[in-house]
Amino acid sequence: MLIWINQQSHEMPLGATLQDAIHLVNKVAPFAAALNQEFVAKTLYAQTLLKDQDKIELIVPITG
């Protein structure tokens, strides 16, 4: 299936989770994740199944 991570397309197998997608792009904390513009708690990453054309945003906090 095709998913989008920060506006870049990626192929993932059926049954992939948000955690699988995060590992695919080697994202390291701290960051927040949104799936189709909805915040997902870190405790739910492994349980959140992805669907074809899902859009994931991995957002890194900016300090200043």
Task: Describe this structure as you would to a colleague.
This protein is mainly beta and 64 residues long. The longest helix has 7 residues. The protein is globular.
What is the average of the pLDDT values? 96
If you compute it from the alpha carbons, what radius of gyration comes out, rounded to the nearest whole angstrom? 11 Å
The major pleated sheet works out as: 5 strands, mixed
Counting copies of identical and different chains, the oligomeric state is: single chain
Shape label:
globular
Alpha-beta content class: mainly beta
Portion in beta strands: 25-35%
Please give the order of strands in the largest beta sheet.
Answer: 2-1-5-3-4
Count of DSSP H/I helices:
1
- Give the SSE order as H and E letters: EEHEEE
Question: How far apart are the termini?
Answer: 38 Å
| Unreliable parts | none
Helix content: 10-25%
Q: How many strand segments?
A: 5
